[in-house]
Each structure stands twice: as C-alpha cells, then as structure tokens.
Specification:
Layout (H helix, E strand, L loop, with lengths): L1 E5 L4 H12 L3 E6 L17 E4 L5 H7 L5 E4 L13 H22 L3 E7 L7 E4 L2 E3 L6 H5 L14 E5 L10 H20 L2 E7 L1 E3 L12 H10 L5 E2 L6 E2 L1 E3 H15 L6 E7 L5 E2 H12 L5 E2 L12 E2 L2 H6 L8 H8 L10
Parallel strand pairs: 1-2, 1-4, 2-3, 4-5, 5-9, 8-17, 9-14, 10-13, 11-16
Antiparallel strand pairs: 6-7, 6-8, 12-15
Length: 350
C-alpha cells in the first residue's frame, strides 16, 4: 500500500509516518515545513519519499498523489490562535488546503481518506443536569471574572460532566474549531460525490515526544514542559480542575493506521467520525503535577486566569473506535507523563 501523509513532518504526522514504515508500508510525505510550525528543519526517515510543498498548491498536490492508494491528511494550522487576525490563515491553511487535496484526489481517483479532526468540534463536552443531558451555552465573562468556571443550568445548578460520543451535537466555538468541522463537511461531500471513503479522527488532548516547544499554538502539555525546562513552575489556568482526555501521540498514530485499513473495507460514499482518546479522565492540574514531579521541577501554580473560547470539560468516549476498528490505547496516563516529562521537544521556532 502506498500512503500519502500530508503534514508528515509535523508532530503527529511524523509519528504516523514512523508507525506506517514500521508496518512495511510505502510512505510519501507532503509538507511545507512552514516556519511557524518547525524550528530546525526536521530530519525525515530515509525510507520516506518526501515532497516539499503547500497542500494549497494544486500542481504540487496533484504530483504528490501519483501512485497513491490512501491519504492521511494531517496538514493543518493548529491551536486557538493568538487573536482573530489569525482567522484568514486558519481558513486558508485548513479549509482551502483540504478542498484542494480532495479535488486532486477526485481527479486522481484516490478514494480512501483519513482526516485529522478534533474534539473542538463539540464545543463544551456532554453534561447532565436535573432535567437530563444538556449542552450549556458558552460561559459568561462575568462568571469567569468571578472565578465561577463550571457550567450551570438556567436555575444555577451545577452540571455534571460526562463522556461525549460522536453523535453529540456539534458546536464549534472558535475559528480553529470551525475550520476542523468544515474539513469534516468537505470530506463528507467528497465521499458522497465521488464514492470515496473517509474517516475523521477527532483527537482529544494529544501529547508526547516531539511536541512543538514554543509556538503560540502549542498545546498545554508542551507549554507546561517548556516552563519546567526553564526552571519555572507551570502556570495552570482557571482552577486546574478542567477535565480532559490526554492521549499519547503513539496511540494517535496507531488509531490512524487502524482507520486507514478500515477505509478499504467500507461501502462507497462512506464518511464516519471517530473520537480518539485514552478512555480515562484527568484534570489539567493533575497533568501539570505529574510533569512537575517526574521532571523534578517546581510545583504548578494555579493562576485563576482564563482564555476566551476555552471550554471547561470535554472528555471522550472512544467506544466506537475500539469496537468498530478493534483499536485500543497502549500507553497509560502515568507512563506517558513519566516519559514526556523528560522527552525531547521539537526545536524552538525562531
């Protein structure tokens, strides 16, 4: 099988590439090596057929698809951005890039796709209140300023967070989330109009060796690690009790390989989303404490700060992925954090 991984030089993409090569697959990588993602130019495995170029470039994408059987689309601008001025770059990088890729796949008769999506398409996670399951509105700034971080119902009663499944209503609440959902919609349209098969993997909080070190778009795990390397205490926003599902990047890679194999056995015109999480719930404060302990650094400091657009609790039910794709995570939270506390990060962006 000949696999194309867009964004295959990045944090998640390169881990997928390694897993695919180790399984004996032929792998081509398309990556622009853009400066705001990569610090020093990454060293790719010598077994990779590398194409340097932007996924928005129609000619380059068409060339990269020659001889390809299946595509793993990881190329994207990630994170919440610095401010709304980032919106055009998010939409262009993620949505225009996906549209160009899908159009080229249709022209080249490449009919199998796995696309990287995200938990952010849900907005807030699933909650239960006195009246049953509910989806709270975005948190009010006045509540956040007052240190009232947990969502409540209209009567003021606290809502209880639960695991969220793929059939939950979608409610993207920032530009990045909107672009990830748009990527799913584009993949759905492509599958229906071409007879292709697509899986969208909704990643929950990914961490692991090789995370970006210091970009403004890096995940919270990377930011905590970078603080500890500077000898500083990790600064934990809100009260540190935000619930998340932290999933190791090697488990993300194995889920992608399982999804790529799944596409070969599906009916034409199929699109299916899958949550990818570890199946265990931990708080951001717990993650920071684990990293501090294993790195031998200062204890985390809870700052009470918040970011507009952040959700309070979101944790995954990965039952669909485990049942339909026969996938299971292999790295526990404790083992993963012990490794990550001292693992190398991606070189700093200059």
């Amino acid at each position: 099988m000949k696999l194309l991984v867009t964004g295959g030089a990045g944090f998640i993409g390169s881990t997928i590439v390694t897993a695919a090569l180790d399984r004996g697959w032929d792998v081509r990588v398309l990556d622009s090596l853009r400066a705001d993602v990569h610090g020093d130019e990454p060293v790719l495995d010598g077994r990779v057929d590398f194409v340097r170029g932007d996924v928005r470039d129609e000619a380059i994408v068409a060339d990269a698809l020659k001889g390809i059987d299946v595509v793993c689309h990881q190329a994207a601008k990630v994170g919440l951005g610095v401010d709304f001025a980032d919106a055009p770059d998010y939409v262009s990088s993620n949505d225009l890039g996906t549209a160009v890729l899908l159009a080229a796949m249709a022209a080249a008769d490449v009919s199998r796709l796995v696309v990287a999506s995200s938990m952010v398409v849900y907005g807030e996670g699933a909650y239960r209140g006195p009246a049953g399951l509910t989806r709270p509105a975005p948190r009010r700034i006045s509540d956040l300023d007052a240190g009232l971080f947990d969502p409540r119902d209209d009567s003021g009663a606290l809502l209880k967070p639960e695991l969220i499944a793929e059939d939950a209503p979608l409610d993207p609440r920032n530009v990045y989330a909107i672009t990830k959902l748009t990527q799913e919609h584009l993949a759905t349209s492509w599958a229906r109009s071409t007879g292709g098969v697509a899986a969208a993997l909704r990643y929950h909080n990914v961490y692991g060796p090789g995370m970006p070190q210091n970009t403004p778009y890096a995940g919270v795990a990377s930011l905590f690690r970078s603080s500890l390397e500077r000898g500083e205490a990790p600064g934990v926003f809100e009260d540190g009790a935000q619930r998340r599902d932290f999933v190791h990047v090697r488990d993300i890679a194995s889920a992608n390989l399982a999804a790529l194999e799944w596409t070969a056995a599906q009916d034409e015109g199929t699109f299916r989303p899958f949550n990818v999480g570890s199946g265990t719930v931990h708080t951001i404060g717990e993650m920071a404490a684990q990293l501090s302990e294993h790195a031998g650094g200062p204890a985390p400091i809870v700052t009470g700060e918040y970011r507009r657009g952040d959700v309070r609790h979101i944790t995954a039910s990965s039952e669909r992925l485990q049942t339909e794709l026969n996938w299971a995570p292999s790295i526990t939270f404790e083992d993963g954090m012990r490794e990550f506390a001292t693992a190398p990060l991606r070189a700093a962006v200059r």
